[in-house]
Amino acid sequence: xxxxxxxxKRYADIPVSPxxxxxxxxxxxxxxxxxxxxxxxxxxVVGRVLTCRDHENSDHLxxxxxxxxxxxxxxxxxxAPNVKEGILVPVAKIGAKLPGGVVIKRGKLxxxxxxxxxxxxxxxGVPVELYPSVGTAGLLIFNEDYPLGADVKPIFGLDDTVIDxxxxxxxxxxxxxxxxxxxxxxxxxxxxKLPEIKVQEVGGDxxxxxxxxxxxxELCPRYAAKVVKNVRIGPSPAWLRQYLxxxxxxxxxxxxxxxxxxxxxxxxxxxxxxxDKVRGKHIIVRKAxxxxxxxxxxxxxxxLSGGELMICDEMGPTxxxxxxxxxxxxxxxxxxxxxxxxxxxxxxxxRITSRALGIRTESSGRFERGVSPATVMDALERACQMxxxxxxxxxxxxxxxxxxxxxxPATLTVSCARMARRxxxxxAPEEMESILKKLLFKVERNGDEMVVTAPAFRQDVDQEAxxxxxxxxxxxxxxxxxxxxxxxxxxxxxxxxxVRQAVLRRQLTGMGFYESMTFSFISAKAxxxxxxxxxxxxxxxxxxxxxxxxxxxxxxxxxxxGLFKTLATNIKNGNENGRLYEMGxxxxxxHRTEENLPTEIPxxxxxxxxxxxxxxxxxxxxxxxxxxxxxxxxxxxDEPYLxxxxxxxxxxxxxTIAVVGEVHPDAAERFDLSGRCYVAQIDLPALFAAAKxxxxxxxxxxxxxxxxxxxxxxxxxxQVGPLMDAIRVGCGAMLEDIRMFxxxxxxxxxxGNKSVAFSLTYRAADHTLTDEEITRLTxxxxxxxxxxxxxxxxx
Amino acid sequence: xxxxxxxxxxxxxxxQELAKTDALQPLEALRVKVLGxxxxxxxxxxxMGQLSPEERPKMGQMINEAREKLTALLDEKQAELAxxxxxxxxxxxxxxxxxxxxLPLIGAEHPMNLVLDEVLDCFTNLGFSVVEGPEVxxxxxxxxxxxxxxxxxxxxxxxxxxxxxxxxxxxxxxxVQARTMLTKKPPIxxxxxxxxxxxxxxxxxxxxxxxxxxxxxxxxxxxMADLKGTLDAFAKRLYGSDIEVxxxxxxxxxxxxxxxxxxxxxxxxxxxCRVCKGTGWIEVLGCGMVNPKVLEMCGIDSKVYxxxxxxxxxxxxxxxxxxxxxxxxxxxxxxxxxxxxR
Lengths: 795, 342
Known about the structure:
CATH topology of the largest domain in chain B: BirA Bifunctional Protein, domain 2
Structural class of chain B: alpha+beta
Number of domains of chain A: 6
Strand order of the largest sheet of chain B: 1-4-5-9-8-7-6
Number of helices of chain B: 12
Number of helices of chain A: 19
CATH topology of the largest domain in chain A: Phenylalanyl-tRNA Synthetase, Chain B, domain 3
Shape of chain B: rod-shaped
Largest interface: A-B, 90 and 89 residues
Low-confidence stretches of chain A: none
Distance between the termini of chain B: 84 Å
Structural class of chain A: alpha+beta
Mean pLDDT of chain A: 92
Radius of gyration of chain A: 42 Å
CATH class of the largest domain in chain B: Alpha Beta
Number of strands of chain A: 39
Largest sheet of chain B: 7 strands, mixed
CATH superfamily of the largest domain in chain B: Bira Bifunctional Protein, Domain 2
Strand content of chain A: 25-35%
CATH class of the largest domain in chain A: Alpha Beta
Radius of gyration of chain B: 43 Å
CATH superfamily of the largest domain in chain A: Phenylalanyl-trna Synthetase, Chain B, domain 3
Oligomer: heterodimer
Strand content of chain B: 15-25%
Low-confidence stretches of chain B: none
Number of domains of chain B: 2
Strand order of the largest sheet of chain A: 27-30-31-35-34-33-32
């Protein structure tokens, strides 16, 4: 909320620099987003052009003598077309500062000395919006008479500073100059000088001019109105225009400006109706019926769905309550009689309507955050006082005030000791009392106990903790000491998932993988690009109702699209040999929890390209399983985004823990991956479930091992894994290990064949193996290889 | 010829031969030539049979002494040559130690996890347990139990993604607080890291997905000074012992009193710089004493227990920590960025 500091200073003294003021306000809870001095000019004064002649060396420059009310007249060279003798203009003297850091220096223009500069409006930063008459072309020429040598800043309100306050959500009362002035007076420890409100009325009775009925007193707890007759529409005085401009509002006319001024000053949004356009001169506050329409002040027509709170006359809607007035009853040059509305509306109702119609105004924003019904009359009377002051019309006597259930101020009984304990600060009861009184609370204290009554404008206070905060804000947060937790210290630590994931991260770091993170939502298109069968649950993601766009419309059911995107980015950026992974949550919308929430599953995907192949990718996954103590098998897999001849599922006890493979060329194309990429996806809950904790260690075998190497020739299509598994099973416990160490293909062993070399390690736990036993084991292995797999010893 | 002369001659010849020998193999041949079965000294020994029984022991002793001497000479030479050969072999084996080769691959965790690890390490050491909650959350836990009823303007500050009327993408990690209070009895000390979602378009400082770390303590007589002490410990642990915390009044629906927390700017150490916009302070997190209304809604007696809560933005502290100027880098996965966090 932007506020003119000059306006604020009318109600509370600020005897410090804007910077120090900012700091004091921030430390007492009124945020400041910006401090902007309006006039960045210095040494620019009113001067009169005494003489003006053509420059001898130029066809457009003039040489003037200018009286600035002191000493000899200045000689100034000026290029403006509208310069002439006798005019009053702003003069930037030698050393003057202009907006944008410009400094005026003594100089010569085409050989003639110039002791300053005559200025246009924009050159000295006069806002054209505020003073349209100053124009943008040529010199600014004053219409009124100002003393020569006078500083031009106050003339245009440029001696002001605009402060942009950041008001906390619980303090709607501070969305006003009075509200900030109240905080300022306490923060500065100066006197609060709110105006005395007096209205001069011309007699008559408001009830002869207008009638108001509120049918929805729940949604409109208070509706107050005053009538002004003999309305005299005209421009607002400069000071009012300046205040509104500082707040970022446009001046319209005196009456509309009064309503905006009152909203900014008191925090109460107001509306003025042209009473002659209110049919039946009868205001009715009711809910809209479906099918009704309203044309708002901005000329837009809004169809209503029914239920919106409306200000109506006898024929239909004439304003959206608390949001925007209607075009029909708008104040115009012709307005003769007007009705000022000052009301309180239900927060939620205003918010719902404002959102539904997409209209957000200064007014709706204030009502949403809460406008106190208790202070409505102050604002309304202040508006009438302004009518008097600006002579904008005659205020009719009497008021309409529909306020069936007056709000009682909150009264609380609080304990000083308890509040001090909560704050952790030693604040004496006397100090608490004094702070609260400065904040306009009523306080009756009896020792430790205080009965506190909140001022009418405060709706945010309803418990001791709130009072504690008020006290602490002004006692000073910097007084909170540093203490440490006492009492029973619980055993802290990571959760199970956190521990397991930290282990996996370390393992992956050790294997050369970099961790990436992508968004939790993806597009339906990205899922479709995986080419999964229609019935696959991954095709049925949880949809976000109000996504930012299609790309973020559904919650990811797999981390793969994110990984593919990351891989594609890196390939495109020319990063060689990528190894990347992401560990994150995927969402299964088809399996809901008891609370009807989707199942959230931790998942891990890995990808590599460059110095990579299927076996390297699979090896990384295998290493992770081995480090988790899992016995696994490599089994077929049918994930469609993987190369049909280079994909595998890795399973333990029949359950798939991981899939691994080369990205299918079709999928690679769809995901913009150039070159071969290898990926793996690990089902983390399955991995965690299959992981075996370390048990008792085995003693180291005392008897020697014997190695035998075998080269077996088999068909190229014969998988090696099942053969090794069969030999393991067949040879039993005395076969300690079987490893493959070479594969050879060549004409020597026939086309379509391969020779695979294995190393077998035999050992018995309780004796040294005999030659006979070794031969028996080797024969057994050869027999299995030949009979079950057609693999024969290479000769 | 006298045996004695023979011995002297053998010794002299050996010395001459040894002087010429520069390798182990010829040395071994020399040894055989002198001491072997057919060696010159062995021949002398055999010739002893012709000597008289009186001379034999004397000569025997003389030959044995000579044998020991010659052996010593040979051994000495052998040691010398062996050392020389080893030296030559090692010299020949010298490699170019600057050739870049066989680097084991290294990887790295995401910078946010590096920072998160430090944060969690700090709080778990203070007795906090790590608790996680669902990212797709009931409106009840995300808002209502935290004192933010439907249509409350406090919802504006958090533009929320909805699944339906009752289910949201959590806009904060605070719902884990509510879930914990409803299921656990005090004392409670938890930290809840996790992803949160708000409908912000992506730019250098905003992302619709980001991370928070929520903290909650509930016990008897917990004060705002304890909160300050806990956060002070956190700040010093993460950013150094000269870092101070500053509380500023603020508002959150679920805490009362509430505070924004600034830390001494770790770039300029409080002197004022570009990072802290000249103030010497950096806004890092929000916190406060748990609103008694929240305690009551979550079934904890606010007359007996009090507590504090805080919420830290992980992106923000990560960006501050490593001087990252654009949040998008954290989600792009570009290796040129990720490789810097080894």
